[in-house]
Design goal:
This protein has about 300 residues and is of the alpha/beta class. About 40% of the residues lie in helices and about 20% in strands.
């Protein structure tokens, strides 16, 4: 069955690993660090793979490189295969596994980290690695299997990624009293797009809402957490989810639904690649445990 595949030299696990690492890093220099010998080794190994498959796998892109369509497909196959071998080795050696979870900074700080830091979780011996990942990158990294689980707000991702609803939430506008005399004035200023506001662009993009696509916020920040920090200085309004109100001074604000989105609900969803479950059947239990625990937390806060 594999006679032709192994009838010539040039294919090896080391070479496939080099392609995966260079593709993920975006350049040979980034993948190999400051080691000239390793950089040369990676260049040679990728060239040997190109000769073996008789296909271009990488191409220059500015100061770095990017994988070609053939390179991306070979890297995907190689990553899946190497992860399978790694999981098999850990099972043979009775070693644990670290589950990698990505999501927005607000979700991580408000829900995920407090849940993972509970004594019952830390004593289980199961390890987690948590990192802030923009929503559009969560999908890509689940496909690449460089994340085990992700948390998104989208209702659908490209196949074969699967989703589980965790909980819904609404938004409010918080306006310091120092900016407007009453709620009616605050609403009027916002509706006319004149209200100085901190907008969490990466977690709540204005482009998704026609009414606010042309709004020019006084402060564009990345997360709800940053918007809340700006709001608490009393010089700007802010859009926040209902589970993240300002701190002890909440009585010094006008609060009302975002016009045009008064009844809109947004969802947090747990996402995973079913290929992960084939590589590591234990991941199904982690998925279910995470989904249940996070769902309960959201139900309490939202």
């Amino acid at each position: 069955m594999f006679t032709k595949l192994f009838s010539q030299s040039g294919l090896s696990l080391d070479r496939l690993k080099a392609l995966v690492e260079v593709g993920s890093a975006g350049s040979i220099v980034q993948a190999a660090g400051s080691e000239p010998a390793r950089q040369s080794q990676y260049s040679r190994q990728i060239k040997e793979l190109e000769d073996f498959f008789q296909a271009g796998l990488v191409e220059r892109h500015g100061k770095g490189i990017q994988l070609t369509a053939s390179g991306k497909e070979l890297a995907r196959i190689s990553r899946f295969f190497l992860l399978g071998l790694s999981n098999f080795q850990r099972g043979c050696l009775a070693e644990g596994q670290t589950y990698r979870i990505g999501g927005s900074p607000t979700f991580l700080a408000t829900f995920l980290l407090p849940m993972l830091a509970q004594p019952s979780r830390t004593k289980s011996g199961i390890r987690y690695s948590v990192e802030t990942v923009q929503e559009e990158d969560v999908e890509r990294r689940l496909h690449d299997l460089t994340l085990d689980f992700g948390v998104v707000t989208r209702s659908a991702l490209s196949r074969p990624i699967q989703l589980r609803d965790l909980g819904s939430w609404k938004t409010s506008v918080w306006v310091p009293w120092a900016l407007c005399r009453n709620e009616k004035e605050a609403m009027r200023e916002l509706t006319s797009l004149r209200l100085p506001i901190a907008w969490p662009e990466q977690e709540f993009p204005r482009a998704q809402f026609d009414r606010y696509a042309d709004y020019e916020p006084a402060l564009t920040c990345s997360s709800f957490l940053e918007a809340r920090a700006a709001l608490e200085q009393q010089g700007l309004a802010a859009v926040l989810p209902e589970f993240l109100p300002p701190g002890k001074t909440s009585k010094r604000y006008w609060q009302f639904p975002l016009p045009g989105l008064e009844v809109a609900e947004f969802q947090y969803r747990l996402a995973w690649n079913p290929r992960l479950l084939r590589l590591n059947p234990h991941a199904a239990r982690r998925r279910d445990a995470l989904g249940e625990a996070l769902g309960k937390l959201l139900a309490k806060r939202c």
